[in-house]
Amino acid sequence: MKRALFLILIGLGGAAILVALGVWQVQRLAWKEGVIADIEARIVAAPVALPASPDPEVDAYLPVTVTGQFIGETRRILVSQKTLGAGYRLITAFQTEGGPVLVDRGFLPTARETAVLPEGTVTVIGNLQWPQETDSFTPEPDAQNNIWFARDVPALAENLGTRPILVVARQLSPAETDVTPFPVDTSRIPNDHLQYAITWFSLATIWLAMTLLFLLRRRRGQTAKG
Fold first, then answer.
1. Average pLDDT taken over every residue of the chain
2. Omega of the bond prior to 174 within 30 degrees of 0, cis?
3. φ, ψ dihedrals at 151, nearest 5°
4. Cα separation values, 130 from 104, 110, 165, 170, Å
5. Mean pLDDT of the 181-198 span
6. Do the beta carbons of residue 122 and residue 70 sit within 8 Å?
7. Strands 122-128 and 166-173: what pairing?
8. Nearest Cα to Cα of residue 71 among 124, 129, 117
């Protein structure tokens, strides 16, 4: 009897812990959905002038309008998208009144090696972003073929001689004909809390089922002996 009671306590206690973890993930899901909703609203807000000294934390996703001229060379960032296939993000230095910044002009398919750089005064409407795309597995840039494997803002800024500020273009005026804008969105923000919650609740169900099965087998064994 004591052993059975012990097993019941273990079963209920373990299931309670697993359910609590599932509830916590549901709460985290609601929090993350709120964060994403706030970011989405921020992305599509009316653009403002580029701050003098934008902060990567405070000004991430801030919609801005900048006017100036593209200068120097363009760096190609290798990417692959389901709807567009393989291609490059084109990052070019952009001279503004406050100094040069980086502009992510958009997507160019790998079938096209280059795109004509817009000349003269250009107005860019887009969003500030400091993407975290590098880790210990990210290859070094292939300088010979002008292929980068991540948008490393500090490294790109040093390479192109700009401030470490990236404007991801949503619209260019005049528009480019060969480059497809690849604007900021929230698709890359991880939100796996629902899957985690389902996993914890499933484990709780399995834990209870296994506990019940063990108790039933033990009872049948005792009945057979009796």
1. 88
2. yes
3. -90, 80
4. 11, 24, 8, 16
5. 86
6. yes
7. antiparallel
8. 117
Pairing of strands 63-81, 147-148: parallel
pTM: 0.80
Report the alpha-carbon distance of residue 185 to residue 219 in Å, rounded: 58
Conformational region of residue 80, where left means phi above 0, alpha means psi within -120 to 50, and beta covers everything else = beta
Backbone phi, then psi, for 167, in 5-degree steps?
A: -105, 115
As given in the structure block, the two tokens for residue 2 are: 């004591």
The separation between the first and the last C-alpha atoms of the chain, rounded to the nearest angstrom, is 15
pLDDT-derived band at 15 (thresholds 50, 70, 90) equals: confident
Q: Are 122 and 96 within 8 A, CB to CB?
A: no
CATH of range 62-173; options 2.30.110, 2.40.50, 2.30.30, 2.60.40: 2.40.50
Please state whether beta strands 85-96 and 63-81 pair in parallel, antiparallel, or not at all (unpaired). Answer: antiparallel
Six token digits for residue 204: 């709780």
Tens digits of residue pLDDT in 45-102: 999 999 999 999 999 999 999 999 999 899 999 998 776 778 999 999 999 999 999 9
